[in-house]
Every structure is written in structure tokens, then in C-alpha cells.
Amino acid sequence: MLATVALAWNWVLIADDGLITHRYVENFIQNGDPYFNLQDRVLGLTSPGYFVMLIASAAIVPLDIAYKLLASVAYLTTGYLTVELFAPKTLLRRLLLAGIFAANLHYAFWVFSGLETFFIPLTAVALATAIKKRSTPAIFAIFASAIMFRPEAWIALFPFVIASVILTRRQEKSAPFNLHVRQLWVTAVGVLAIASIGSALIARYYDNFVPLSVKAKSSIGIQLNSTAVQEFAAESIAPMNVPIPFGYIIGVLLIAAMSYLILRRFRLPEQQTAVPAMAVGAVVFGAYLLLTGAWVWPWHYIFISYVISVVLISNAETLLRASEKYGQIGVILIVALTLWSSAEYGNDKNARTQSFYIEQMQVAGRYVADQYPPETVVVVGSAGYFGQETMAMTVHDSAGLFTPEIVEARESDQSAKITDVIGWDVMVCHLSDSATNPVDRCLSEESNGIATTNFGALWIIENQK
């Protein structure tokens, strides 16, 4: 696992949305304003808890190091708790099963992407540990903290907790859950106090309580079609999606075969009742992604990726108990397939980030920052890498992450253009680099602009007021 941390630290390029959070943090550190655009009271953050952790960490080390340190701690903590929960005490078996977790570079990739989605699997394994110990106060506290760090975490964790408690209570001779009424009251008061402080701060600094990024994405609407199903299937099985045509089918068949063996041929150990419970949480969360349109953002699959690792670890441990020799062969096969699949996945994502966000979006940002005054209002399709180069400017994401006007407009008309509802000076429009008539394709008939230059697929359009 330490080797995976070292690899991911140097291998993973930060996601565009991760840099959106960084701009919030940098504006707060430098100006005392927790906003993406200075004096713009829009809450676009999806994790106030992670925002506070980044601020505290950035006070000690540079921000580009701070987020990686947080990711390292989260990754190693999740890995350690997973091995403790699902692996036996035999050193060799623990090392073999830890190798399966470490081989899931898809999971590691999104942990180190600069996003806060790693809190869902981290709190899931923490909940599994608390359920094993039958500690109701701990279950309540962990569940509440998960929501504070990633609000939609409850969609995955609530069905997991319910299923896990039911399976645990059905175990023969299982100890009852300890209510510890006094501890439960203390925990509830503490959680309520933290939530109240957070709510007060949000009311103090922002005009919207629900993150506008959530409203913007939900306004896109459901996109359930054959493409959605195919993309969902490929992303869901990404840790075992061998890079050949329909390679994800291999992963599905392998997991199905191993799950059949553990459920039908071998007795499920008590400490592994969390495995089917986590599978329930993954299925519910997957349905949420598919049915709401959230399937288009790949970092949302990190919880499903983690559950795949847990299923593989649990099944491999069962096979090792049944046959040490064949179990070791199975573990080696799993590690090889997982490394191959998820390394290819991460390399493809890095290549996309390098070619589009760094070599085009970042370069376009530098150009705009050099050519236009700080008071320029810019509309851009993706605000992370671009926004890092234009810190003094007002930058609006055309998806509506920081623009209430376009969110309201698109709730009634999906075709509404941001340039028709807000004042703007420059637009960075994404078309092909050989596009003709970029102005006509990027602006409506009500707007008037001129294309000045392009950086690959990004066209710089000036507003001709």
C-alpha cells in the first residue's frame, strides 16, 4: 500500500474539479473570502468539511502538498481498516490480501485526484468496524460525519448500515448492539453542535445553502439511454475492466464466479458480513448514479471501486482457507488483472487531463490573463485549470456551478445559454480545432461576438457590446 501511495502521489494529475476547491481555499487564505470569485456569495463547494481540512493543512504545508497528504492518510487508513476487518491474522495471507487492495489503482487514482469522494469508502469501512464492535454511538457519529464531508454519502451508507445490522444480528451468538445511552447523547449533541456551526457559517458567507454545483448538475436532467448504461457498466467495473473490447465482461464474470463460491460453497465468516452489506450499498448507490445522470462524472464510482476490492479480498481469503495453493494462484491472477485494468484507466485519464486541461485550458487561461484586465468577466466550459491562471478575474462555469441565473434559466429551458443571462466580456468555447463559424455555434442570435484566437479545441470569443 505504501508503494501505491508513492506511485499515486507522482502519477495522478489533479482533476479539474479539485482545482475548483483549491481556488476557494486560496481565495480564503489570501483574501479572507471563501468564494470562487471574490465577493461572489455563491456556495459551489460540495464538501465544507474537506474545505476546512484543506485550509488547516495549507497553513502548514503548500496546498499542492496538503491535498496529497490528506489523500495519503485517507488511503492508508482505509487500507489498514480493510485488512484488519477482512483479512486473517496470518502474516502471509494479510500481505496477499493487502496486495489486492493496493493493486486497485483505479481507486488510488481517484483518492489522489484532489476530490473529496474518498470520504465515502473511508467512512464505509469505519462504519463496518463500528458495527463489528456493536458501538451505536460510533455508528451514529461516523454516519453523520460522512454526510458533512460528502452529502450524498448517505445514499450508499444508509442501505449498507441497515443491511449490515440485519446480517450481524442474524449471526449465531452475536453480541447485542451497545446503546451506551450517555455516549449516544454526547455524540448527538456534538454532531448537532458541529452541524449548527457549519450551517451558521454557510448562512454568514453564502446566499445559497444547497451547493449550487449540485443544483446545476441536477438541472441537467436524467440521461438514461444505451450510452449511459454502457458508460455506467464500464466505469462500475473499471478496476477489472481489461483493456480489450468488452473487457469489463471478464471482470463481471470473475466477480460473479467468486461470489458464487463464497455464498454457495463456503460458510461466510462473521467478520465478513459487511461484504454483502457493502454490495447492497454499492447497488443502491449505482442506481442513484444511473437514474440521476450523475454517472457522467467518473469520480463518483470510487465507492463502487472500493466495494469491488472488498469483494475480491473476501472471496480470495475464502479460497485461501479452502486451498492455500490454488488460493495464491487466484490472488496473483486478481492482482495482475487489477493492475493491468486500472493502470490503463489511470493513464487514459492522465492523458486526457494533460492534452485538454493542461495543454489547452491552462494555456488559454494564461492568454486571457495576459491579454485582458483583471475586471474581465469570463465564461468557460471548465473552471478548474482555467481558474488557476485567472485568479483575479471573475470566472463563470458554463455548466452553472457558480451562476444562479443560468441554473434558474435551465430549469425551464435546457437549451438556455449562459451568455444570454449574465453580463460577460470573454467566452472560452469548446469546439473542434477546425471548426468553422465558432461564434455562430457558441453564441445565440441575441449575442454578438468575435473569435480572436484558439488553443486547440478552445476558441476565445470577445463580446462585441
Can you give a write-up of this model?
A 5-stranded mixed sheet has the order 2-1-3-5-4. The protein is mainly alpha-helical. 64% of the residues lie in helices and 6% in strands.
Query: Biggest β-sheet: count, sense, barrel?
Result: 5 strands, mixed
Q: How much is the radius of gyration in Å?
A: 24 Å
Unreliable residue stretches: none
Number of strands: 5
Structural class: mainly alpha
Arithmetic mean pLDDT: 86
Provide the spatial order of strands within the biggest beta sheet: 2-1-3-5-4
Q: What string gives the helices and strands in order?
A: HHHHHHHHHHHHHHHHEHEHEHEE
**Distance, first to last CA:** 57 Å
Short description:
The chain has 465 residues and is mainly alpha-helical.
What are the defining features of this structure?
single chain, mainly alpha, 5-stranded mixed β-sheet, 64% helix, globular
List the helices and strands and how they pair.
Layout: H1 2-11, H2 16-31, H3 48-58, H4 63-86, H5 91-103, H6 105-111, H7 119-132, H8 136-149, H9 153-170, H10 181-205, H11 212-218, H12 226-236, H13 248-265, H14 274-292, H15 302-322, H16 324-371, E1 377-380, H17 383-389, E2 394-397, H18 404-412, E3 426-430, H19 438-442, E4 449-455, E5 458-463
Parallel strand pairs: 1-2, 1-3
Antiparallel strand pairs: 3-5, 4-5
